[in-house]
């Protein structure tokens, strides 16, 4: 496998990892092995209770494995001091876990403080990170968590996890508690961020659509964290390994594939066919983005614009359907534009 993107991430290797909780007759995770390449964004998808979170939490040793080995860039995680280890692994959870009595700036500065950074360096980093997650520092740094919306709090959670520039990020349903529109916004923002950061990320989700939208590779898990398929979203959607994976994808495989197909794969209509107006679709968007915008606006066609905002054509539901009917090869969409994507 080739990782083309600029990466600052680390390789994670789990080998034969098993976790049996105290007094439990059955293992929560059994003999789990996986190699994650530097800079990969790996999605763990599976039903409630299948062991996703347990598997992930063993990487930063919030949960200790019963047996097996885990290494990050060749270093045995189980031989490191757990507190030291956790300072080098960013961790974002659904409940966010911001400290209510601390300001946003203080929340983001928690790890730099633990690492003994100077005040000046910490302040500079906090401002940089808040700007990165699109929260204007002058407006938000001094506020308290309860003075922010759920989506804004979640961004602070991401900024805090990134503070010490960790090579590895673990994300447990980070956008799960947000409404669908905020969630899509946070996902898009997060993809843009990852494009430049290139962290190695393990991301747990219930939501198969989220996995398709975000993941470089998806691990579809069943009970005891058994890996039913570990492959790119495109390969899983087009060739599910077994009935379990197929049932997980559900009936909407064709619609889900739209996320992976750029708008430019459609035969665009003439510019004049759309009503014009402020809502446009970019050549960097996916057909799924285009479909969402069409549904949202209720318009029969929308204008497609290039990166300089110049109209290049129009897109309609019929033209999107035609692409699915034509079984075009799935090409990487804009989120892979900084690199050439990756083969499985
Ligand atoms: N502390 C614990 N003690 C005993 N059993 C546990 C403990 N934590 C989790 N389990 C069990 O281990 C199994 C895996 O749980 P885990 O939280 O890893 O699943 P999950 O796939 O992340 O679920 P969800 O999507 O609901 O969060 C479940 O059967 C759960 O009941």
Automatic annotation (TrEMBL):
<dbReference type="InterPro" id="IPR046342">
    <property type="entry name" value="CBS_dom_sf"/>
</dbReference>
<dbReference type="GO" id="GO:0016020">
    <property type="term" value="C:membrane"/>
</dbReference>
<dbReference type="InterPro" id="IPR005892">
    <property type="entry name" value="Gly-betaine_transp_ATP-bd"/>
</dbReference>
<dbReference type="GO" id="GO:0031460">
    <property type="term" value="P:glycine betaine transport"/>
</dbReference>
<dbReference type="GO" id="GO:0015418">
    <property type="term" value="F:ABC-type quaternary ammonium compound transporting activity"/>
</dbReference>
<keyword id="KW-0129">CBS domain</keyword>
<dbReference type="InterPro" id="IPR027417">
    <property type="entry name" value="P-loop_NTPase"/>
</dbReference>
<dbReference type="InterPro" id="IPR000644">
    <property type="entry name" value="CBS_dom"/>
</dbReference>
<protein>
    <recommendedName>
        <fullName>ABC-type quaternary amine transporter</fullName>
        <ecNumber>7.6.2.9</ecNumber>
    </recommendedName>
</protein>
<dbReference type="Pfam" id="PF00005">
    <property type="entry name" value="ABC_tran"/>
</dbReference>
<feature type="domain" description="CBS">
    <location>
        <begin position="273"/>
        <end position="330"/>
    </location>
</feature>
<comment type="similarity">
    <text>Belongs to the ABC transporter superfamily.</text>
</comment>
<dbReference type="GO" id="GO:0016887">
    <property type="term" value="F:ATP hydrolysis activity"/>
</dbReference>
<feature type="domain" description="ABC transporter">
    <location>
        <begin position="12"/>
        <end position="249"/>
    </location>
</feature>
<keyword id="KW-0547">Nucleotide-binding</keyword>
<dbReference type="InterPro" id="IPR003439">
    <property type="entry name" value="ABC_transporter-like_ATP-bd"/>
</dbReference>
<dbReference type="GO" id="GO:0005524">
    <property type="term" value="F:ATP binding"/>
</dbReference>
<keyword id="KW-0067">ATP-binding</keyword>
<keyword id="KW-0677">Repeat</keyword>
<keyword id="KW-0813">Transport</keyword>
<dbReference type="InterPro" id="IPR003593">
    <property type="entry name" value="AAA+_ATPase"/>
</dbReference>
<dbReference type="InterPro" id="IPR017871">
    <property type="entry name" value="ABC_transporter-like_CS"/>
</dbReference>
